[in-house]
Design goal:
Rossmann fold; seven-stranded mixed sheet; 11 helices; 45% helix; binds S-adenosylmethionine
């Protein structure tokens, strides 16, 4: 059966449902993508009308599970290790050393780091590797570090927990980091890279929907990365999420967004700081 067209009213229904549930906003230019993904799931379910599928997702007892499957098709979970190099430079040269120094002065040894929208885990593991790089072998063991990776996609979280990547996934990683923090397995076309145990042990993954204000339980974070997540959201929602994230920072903590993802952000107690070629936000009170 050929794919029927998504009418204007059906498109609006789906666009609003998706935006309300997960923040993704399908502009008219992405209508075709939305339609193709809906149709893919409808064929699996043998449903012929977009409106019937809408009712299935909303009211059928299996609707919740179906929504998860559809969501995995709609989300873009593209990621890479040390993706935005200037952010990691700022983190390793300025942010972590300053935070660790301040903690030492207060006789504290814990660090809380959060990758919000962690996709398949590359960002969370990169943050744990960055900590190892800064602390070095003499100091790593002195610190209690917890890196949380959170995402709305269960499929991504499964891959993240697995911590196994294809050679093409680690290609952009600086070679010394790859040598130190990944172990190689398999041969030729079956080769794979596993995140090394000392890094993996610092990281834990959890399901969390950033558009649900009740789900922000990760408080008192020293560092939050939320990069390349908000780009598909509407401007007002981006600001709401960034404000929620700011409230999850501990005093002195830093928020890293991707460049130009949120423009003109201004929130009490939060100071923009330029570090290296990165703009980060610090909670100052
Ligand atoms: C393009 S990836 C970015 C991954 C990583 N932060 C990076 O910069 O490489 C975007 C991720 O955001 C997640 N995401 C989208 N909407 C979300 C929401 N409402 N709550 C939590 N995660 C969400 C997606 O599932 C996806 O894994």
């Amino acid at each position: 059966m050929s794919r029927p067209d998504l009418s204007a009213s059906e498109y609006e229904l789906w666009r609003d449902l998706v935006a309300q549930r997960c923040g993704l906003y399908f502009t008219p230019s992405r209508k075709h993508f939305l339609q193709a993904r809906l149709w893919e799931r409808m064929q699996q379910r043998q449903i012929k009308q977009y409106s019937d599928y809408y009712h299935f997702v909303l009211y059928n007892p299996q609707g919740k599970r179906e929504w998860g499957q559809l969501l995995d098709l709609l989300l873009n979970n593209e990621s890479s290790f040390f993706r935005h190099a200037p952010s990691y430079k700022a983190l390793q040269r300025h942010v972590l050393p300053a935070l660790m120094q301040a903690k030492r002065r207060q006789k504290m040894n814990h660090l809380a780091i959060w990758s919000a929208g962690c996709a398949n885990g590359q960002e969370a593991y990169s943050l744990a590797m960055a900590f190892h790089e800064v602390a070095g072998p003499d100091e790593t063991w002195l610190w209690q570090v917890k890196v949380w990776g959170s995402d709305i996609s269960r499929q991504s979280l499964r891959k993240a927990r697995n911590g196994r990547y294809r050679p093409c996934d680690v290609r952009t990683m600086p070679a010394p980091l790859r040598r130190n923090y990944m172990t190689v397995g398999g041969n030729g076309r079956d080769a794979y890279y596993d995140v090394a145990e000392p890094v993996k042990r610092l990281v834990q993954f959890t399901e969390l929907n950033l558009t649900n204000p009740d789900s922000y339980w990760l408080t008192a974070q020293d560092v939050i990365f939320c990069q390349n997540v908000l780009i598909y959201f509407q401007a007002a929602q981006r600001i709401e999420i960034v404000e929620q994230l700011c409230q999850c920072l501990s005093p002195g903590g830093y928020l890293f967004l991707a460049p130009a993802e949120v423009v003109g952000f201004n929130y009490p107690g939060i100071k923009p700081v330029r570090l290296e070629e990165s703009l980060v936000y610090q909670r100052v009170e």
